[in-house]
Every structure is written in C-alpha cells, then in structure tokens.
Amino acid sequence: MGPLWDDMKVFLAVAREASLSGAGRVLKMDPATVGRRISRFEEAMDAALFVKTPQGYALNAAGDRLLAHAETAEQAMRSGQEALSGPSDTLSGQIRLGAPDGCANYVLPQVCARISKDHPDLDIQIVALPRGVNLSRREADMAVTVSAPTSGQLLVQKICDYKLHLVASRHYLRDAAPIENLEDLKDHKMIGYIPDMIFDRELDYLNELGVERVALASTSVSVQIKLAAQGGALCVAHDFCLPSHRMLRKILNDKISLTRSFHLVRHQGDQRSERINRFADALQKGIRDEVETLEALT
Predict the structure, then answer these.
(1) Phi-psi region of 33 (alpha: psi -120 to 50; beta: other; left: phi over 0)
(2) What is 161-259's CATH topology?
(3) Domain ranges in the chain?
(4) pTM, two decimal places
(5) Domain 2-85: top CATH class
(6) Mean pLDDT in order along the chain per 10 residues (298 residues)
C-alpha cells in the first residue's frame, strides 16, 4: 500500500497542476521522476489516466473517475493523522485560503492575524485572485466567494452580507459637476471592473446601475479604489474598504446601495477534519465581526 499511496499523491499533484513540472514544484521532485511515478501508477491501475497535450497533462475519462476516489483517500489519511495526534487547543500545519481581492486586502489581514496570534503553529496562506479559486485543483483548502456555487461536492456556508455604495474623492466632488440624482451620473467618468473579465455576475455593479462606459478599469478592487482616491472618477466601493481611504465620500446614499454576501466554500469531505472545521468557524466569526466593525466606521 505504501508505494501505491505515494504514487497516488503524485497522481493528485499532476491532476491539479496539469503538468509534470508544476507537480514537481509542489512535491519538491524532479519532473522526470514525477513522469516515472505516473507511469508506474498507471501500470498499477492498469489504465492510462492522462492525455498529454501541448498545454500539459489533462485527465482522461479514467483519470476523472479516479480523481474523486483519490481525494477521498487523501482526506481519510489527513483525518487519520489528526486522530492519532489527538485533540489540541491550538491549530497547526498549513491552511490555504482563497478569496476575492477586496476581501483579501481589506478584511482577511486583520482576521487572519488574530487567528495566527491564537494559533502560533498554524501557517495561513491567503490566495488573492481576480477570479474564482479552483478547489478541485486544490489551489486552496477553502475559499471565500461572492456567489454560492451550485455544482460540485462542496460545502457552502453563508458568512455575512456586506454593503457597497458609490464613492468619489473629496477633490473630485469639489471640482466636478454636482451629483444630485442618478441622471447626473451620465456626466461623470466611472471606475469599475474590465467588462469582459468579470468572473462573477454579482460583481457587475455598473451594469446594474445602467452605466455603459467604464473609463478606468481593473480586475482588482484595491486598484479601483486607489483610482477613485486619485480623484479621476466615481467608483462603486465596499463600505468595509472606506475606513482605509478617508478621502473618499459616499454619494447618492439614498438612491444607490448594493448588498452582496460572502460565502465560505470547501470540500464536503473536509467536514470530517476537526482542524479544518475549527479554522472555518474562527474564520467565519472573524469575517462577520470585521465587516460589522468596518462598516460601522463609514
């Protein structure tokens, strides 16, 4: 079982990284050795598991069927190790958390710093991406998302709601044409996401407001807000970002107020892990408290 399980870990790494070199980096192993181990594993399974393409290694139908079972075995091994190590008041090891960059920049640093202080042997990695995090490839152990996924064997828990408003810098408002109603917005430049790179319909704020042109655009929330702070245009911003940018002011509060939600998404099988469950509980409470605290300051 030993060599077979070792080779299954190699299989999982290649499936997630889609290349021998990528798997080698994860496993700290030479790509040629990864290739030999995959060949040995396919021979043991009596089936080819990958198709080699110009882009790398892609799972074939047999590999797809095996993947879910391999991940179940992986989680069972982790749970077994936790059971043997016994209960502990503090968490240890590594947990990788994916999140949209607004949450990652303005909420998670405070939350994760507090969790790290309570659990000094725990390594927390925050993956801030301008797209969804692929949990099936184990880009992260869990992810904070804006939309709740509806497919896959995933556990989805709503964390909290958060508010967004239209904002502009004090300098912009001093020099620009007055903004008293929605009709006035047509005379002002807007900042937002790059329209054809919006990865979640919940982020398409400007379309919801009927805005047709995005004069300044970025895939990053923090870049958008910094553009607004420069005084060049208007921006839809999370209320929890505003305490970090005191030069920004909400406008048309009574006419434009958006509500979105954060969800925590992880593999269903991870529910068997006390360590993951405890981190998830601490993370959700931390995010709820931090969003509430920051929004109260605006």
Answers:
(1) alpha
(2) D-Maltodextrin-Binding Protein; domain 2 (3.40.190)
(3) 2-85, 93-158+261-296, 161-259
(4) 0.73
(5) mainly alpha
(6) 77 87 89 93 92 88 86 70 59 87 96 96 87 64 88 86 96 89 88 88 85 90 94 94 95 92 88 85 97 96
